[in-house]
Amino acid sequence: MKKMKLWAVGALLSVLFASCAFHSSKHSFGPYSAAETFYSKGNYPKAIEKYQEYLAENPKGNLAATAEYYVAKSYAASGNPDRARESFERVLKTFPGTSWAAFSKEQLEALDGVTKV
């Protein structure tokens, strides 16, 4: 009987640990997740690097438009309006008709207002 209880506890622990390991990796988007973390902490150069890594691996992925938009936002926050403009324009060209294209258009207009004063 003792052996049976010990075996049952061992089996239960194995299942619990296995489900934890499976669950944690299930919600990671690799470089995109890392980019989001860097962006939220204001580390824009590392955010750009990781967003671009995601884009290189997933140029048409579900998060590609978002990643390109945040590359542009990161350049703008880093004080590089020319690179920001290039990235916003890439969103407009590559992902027309999306909300990210509309947001990019607004950001381009804001950049134009700042640089043409």
Outline the fold blueprint.
Layout: H1 2-26, H2 31-40, H3 44-57, H4 64-77, H5 81-94, H6 99-115
Helix pairs in contact: 2-3, 3-4, 4-5, 5-6
Overall description:
This protein has helices spanning 2-26, 31-40, 44-57, 64-77, 81-94, 99-115. The chain has 117 residues and is mainly α. It has one domain (29-115): Alpha Horseshoe (Serine Threonine Protein Phosphatase 5, Tetratricopeptide repeat). The radius of gyration is 22 Å and the shape is elongated.
Count of discrete domains: 1
The average pLDDT score comes to: 84
Order of helices and strands: HHHHHH
Name of the CATH homologous superfamily: Tetratricopeptide repeat domain
Kindly state the percentage of residues in helix.
over 70%
Radius of gyration: 22 Å
Total strands: the figure is 0
CATH class group = Mainly Alpha
Q: Regions with pLDDT < 50 over 5+ consecutive residues?
A: 18-26
Shape: elongated
Percent range for β-strand residues: under 5%
Second rung of CATH, namely the architecture: Alpha Horseshoe
Distance linking N and C termini: 83 Å
The number of helices is: 6
Largest sheet: none
* CATH domain topology: Serine Threonine Protein Phosphatase 5, Tetratricopeptide repeat
Class computed from helices, strands and strand pairing = mainly alpha
Short description:
This protein is mainly α.
